[in-house]
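Appendix B, Record 12. Input sequence as logged:
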Amino acid sequence: MRCIPFRYRSSDGSSDEISDKVVEVLMIDTPSGPGLLFPKGGWENDETVEEAAVREAIEEAGVRGELMGFLGDYHFKSKTQQDEFSPDGLCRAAMYALLVTEELECWPEQNTRNRSWVTIPEAIEKCRHAWMRDALAIGFNKWHAENISDE
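Logged structural output:
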């Protein structure tokens, strides 16, 4: 499971309305290659998929927040997940929107990951994987457009 951590930044400081604010998403880098990613990982036997998404955001990106919505399941291939049951390494990631409420000064993976707050167009450009771009451009944007009026 993975999440797209996001926040609102005032575009000009003149309004408290969410519709007047810029959406920024938090991405992280990784030592294994170029481009940026969203926090991700597996889940433990004693936690739900949602709890795991929140935990991974803390561990990898050093942020806490509130899960706001399910963005969909996205399929991809992973070389590290290739085995006799899935020779192609086919995986499915459940994606969630996470409204960030706190940025931690210290977090478990801070020595191997850097955080970057970027706009959605910047994130689409910098995202390492096509399926993550789809999750952002299609899943997150659709969810946000449908839910912005509820804020």
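The beta strands are 2-10, 21-30, 33-37, 63-77, 90-103, 115-119.
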